[in-house]
Each structure stands twice: as C-alpha cells, then as structure tokens.
C-alpha cells in the first residue's frame, strides 16, 4: 500500500486549509501575543510531539500490519493526528511558541525499531501496544490542559479534542485485547 504519499499530501492540505481558516477566524492580535504560561507551553510542546509520534505510528500500522482492522485504525489515527498537529502548530504560532516539526528522539528510536520488525503477529502486538501507550499519554496531556490551562483558547482546544482521543484510545485498547 502506498500510503506515505497520501499521508504527506493530506498533511499538507490539512495544514494549508487550517492555516487559512485560522488566519481568517483568529487574526493575531494583542491578546494572542501575550505571554504563554510554562504549563501551556509544555502542553503545546508535548501535544505536538504526541501528534507527530501518532502520525508515524499510524503510518507504520497502516503500511505494515497484517490485519485490515489495524491498518484501518492506523490510517484513521494518522489522518486525525495530522489535523490535530496542524491546529497545534497554528495555536503555537499565535502564541509565539516554537514547537517541534520532527519526531522526538525517543519516538524516532521506537519508530525505527518497529520499521525493522518483520510484519506478522509479533509486529501487530508491538505496534498496537505502542499505540495504546501513546494514546494514554496524549489523553492525559489533553485532560490536564482542558482542566488546568490558563489560556482559554488552549483549554477549549484541549477539551474539544478529548472525545476523539478517548475514542482512539478505546479503539486501540480493543485491538490490543483482540490480539
């Protein structure tokens, strides 16, 4: 399956579309340029790293899994996280917070390890286990930001993303139980 070009073109389209709508709906003004708290900056950094990691894990699951339900879940996760990552990027830019555009080193090592694993039942267990861990971690970050962010836009963004993150976690946990 040649998903990578599709994922890249989808990511670019989502980024451009979101950037255009966010500029129109949320022009940079004095309120957006105010100082971002350390807690909110940490959320933006961690959430962006989680989205980038999920995009890669979803891609790998979609391309390498032997099971169609894992492939489908991986593709849906990657697409959802591309949208989230684009929104996080725009949110961070409005707050003048530099967020990563590449995988964190720890995630890059895990991705390399998974890419070198022979496809089959062992690979499926490993990728789904990694997806469960990443989804739990991301959900915790977003729940914390939805409750504790000092920035109303960040708090609203995090709260708005919670249902999708909870659904993704339930889906990968269900996959994990079925393996």
Structural notes for this entry:
There is one protein chain. The protein has one domain: Ferritin, CATH 1.20.1260. The chain is built from six helices and no strands. The chain has helices at residues 3-25, 38-64, 68-94, 105-115, 121-148, 152-178. It is elongated. The relative contact order is 0.15.
Largest sheet: none
Number of domains: 1
* Cα end-to-end separation: 23 Å
Secondary-structure content class: mainly alpha
Mean pLDDT: 86
Helix tally equals 6
CATH fold assignment: Ferritin
Give the topology string: H per helix, E per strand: HHHHHH
Helical amount: over 70%
Unreliable residue stretches:
11-33
Which CATH architecture would you pick? Answer: Up-down Bundle
Q: In CATH's first tier, which class applies?
A: Mainly Alpha
Quick summary of this structure?
This protein is mainly α and 179 residues long. 80% of the residues lie in helices and 0% in strands.
């Amino acid at each position: 399956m040649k998903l990578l070009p599709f994922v890249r073109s989808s990511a670019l389209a989502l980024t451009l579309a979101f950037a255009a709508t966010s500029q129109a709906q949320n022009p940079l003004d004095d309120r957006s340029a105010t100082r971002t708290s350390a807690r909110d900056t940490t959320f933006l950094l961690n959430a962006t790293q989680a989205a980038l990691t999920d995009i890669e894990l979803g891609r790998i699951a979609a391309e390498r899994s032997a099971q169609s339900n894992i492939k489908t879940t991986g593709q849906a996760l990657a697409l959802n996280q591309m949208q989230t990552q684009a929104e996080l990027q725009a949110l961070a830019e409005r707050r003048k917070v530099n967020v990563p555009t590449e995988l964190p080193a720890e995630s890059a090592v895990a991705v390399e390890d998974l890419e070198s694993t022979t496809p089959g039942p062992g690979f499926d267990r490993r990728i789904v286990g990694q997806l469960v861990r990443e989804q739990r971690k991301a959900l915790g970050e977003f729940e914390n930001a939805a409750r504790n962010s000092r920035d109303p836009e960040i708090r609203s963004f995090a709260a708005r993303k919670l249902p999708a993150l909870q659904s993704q976690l339930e889906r990968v946990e269900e996959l994990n139980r079925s393996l």
